[in-house]
Protein: RNA-directed DNA polymerase, eukaryota
Amino acid sequence: MPMSGDERRWVWSGDGTRVFTVASGRSIIDTGTLVIDNTPTRWSKDVPIKINVFIWKLLLDKLPTRDNLEEKGLDVPSSLCGVCDHVTESSSHVFLSCQVAMEIWRQFGRWWDLDIPHLSSMKDLLEWVDNLKISKIQRMGLYNVVITAAWSIWRFRNETIFGVNKPKKALIFDFIVSQAFFWSFGCPIGIKS
Structure:
């Protein structure tokens, strides 16, 4: 909002009316910064809300991965994956192609007796789950375990980068299995895990 001449007042130039309203400000923000995505948001009542919010952010590629932080202009000590330290850290790398993630999905496939194809995004993985020829109940259970696995991979990544004690890779899969059963069968959502 530039000042003109000797006048000492603010003038709104966002929509040409020179009169600021919350609606005009919101309109400028919405049209300039929001990503419009026609993909419906899918929420599972069987997992904590934090997992649903996490998956929503993941599918929009809004998690604070190192490539996303750099894209926002933040100074990141390294752009390499915080887990394997080999490749630029992106959502697709962290959740699908990092060595740790690939091992989790291999174990997951053995557990569910599935050949999980190599996919390029979590959206592709969830679409693959939706297209499996299994019952609706099995599909929902599988979906819940997949999103629990993704959240567990992110949790492992964060503990690796920020934790005092480095987490053990060998325990990730056991954690996924126990959390999936805990949330699906044994724990009311209000109880923290």
Confidence is low (pLDDT under 50) at residues 189-193. Residues 49-186 form one domain. The longest helix spans residues 136-162. The two ends are 49 Å apart (CA to CA).
